[in-house]
Sequence to fold (88 residues):
Amino acid sequence: MNDTPVITVIDPAVPPPRRSSPKRILVTIVAFLACGVLAVFGAFGADYLDKLRRDQDDDYRELTGVVRNARRELRQAVSQLLRRHPAP
Fold:
C-alpha cells in the first residue's frame, strides 16, 4: 500500500509545435507609452492646480473642500472598520 505512486503519468509530455514567450519589446513599448501619457496628464493636472491655487479661484476652493471632506470620510470609515475588526 505504501508503494502506490501519488502521481500517475497518463500521457507522455509533448513539446508544443511553436515556442511561446512574452513579447518583451511590445510590453516595453506599451508600458513606456502608458507611463508617458500618465506623466503628461499629471503635468497638466499639476499645472492646472497650481494656476487655480495662485488665482484663489472658486473652483480651487471647492476642490479643496471636496478633498477635505473625502479625507474626513475616509478617516471615519477606517476608524469604524478598525473598531469592528481590531488588529490581532
Notes: Residues 24-55 form the longest helix (32 residues). Helices lie at 24-55, 58-84. The mean pLDDT is 86.
